[in-house]
Amino acid sequence: MSSYPTNTRILELLVGLTLVILGSWAILDGTLAEGIILLIFSIGLFLIGLARIVKGATITSLKQTSRVIHIVTGFLTIVLASVVLVFPAFGTNLLISVVALGLFFTGIARILIFYSESEMSLKTRAFHLIVGAIGTAIPILILIVPGLGFLTLVLFASIAFIIVGAARIVSGVFGEF
């Protein structure tokens, strides 16, 4: 797609690959301490927010509403990632809730794109809807069932990172939003 700048596609690929690696690492390495896992999630959320802002700023073929959605949700995600980094003393449950909210905003943004970008192919819009539904369901589960324990929450959040990362890779490879 000519309106999808090459630099933005490369950023999508790099962010997607990083999210898949971070999410997989958090799942596969049981020796990681809570602080390291929260750092991984903060980095992932920061990258998600950055990618959303760059897409909103550079993809001129998106409707103005979609561009604003990308930029605002990207900013909110970066703010939440910063809260996790700056205030680690608040406790694990609060920090996991902040991570869940960041993932939730990303999922909502994808669902809104499904409804606002009628010019996109139905396949691309459906992909946004499915990833958005998963991306909102997992954080909601994390928020309403905190008694699942830290490792279960890490597993759910990691799966969400892997799904969002895979979606970013697909977006970068095919040049669709």
List keywords for this structure.
0% strand, 177 residues, mainly alpha, 81% helix
Extended strand count:
0
Please give the domain count: 1
Topology order in helix (H) and strand (E) letters: HHHHHH
The computed structural class is mainly alpha
The quaternary organization reads as single chain
Relative strand content = under 5%
**Ends apart, CA distance between termini:** 10 Å
Note the total helix count.
6
Rg over C-alpha atoms, rounded to the nearest angstrom: 15 Å
Note the main sheet: none
Helix content: over 70%
What is the 3D form? Answer: globular
- Whole-number mean pLDDT: 83
Which ranges are low-confidence, i.e. pLDDT below 50, for 5 or more consecutive residues?
none
Summarize the structure.
The protein is mostly helical.
Description of the structure:
Helix content is 81%, strand content 0%. With 177 residues, the protein is an all-alpha fold. It has one domain. Helix 1 (6-28) runs antiparallel to helix 2, helix 2 (34-58) packs parallel to helix 4 and helix 3 (64-86) runs antiparallel to helix 4 (92-116). It is globular, with a radius of gyration of 15 Å. The relative contact order is 0.18.
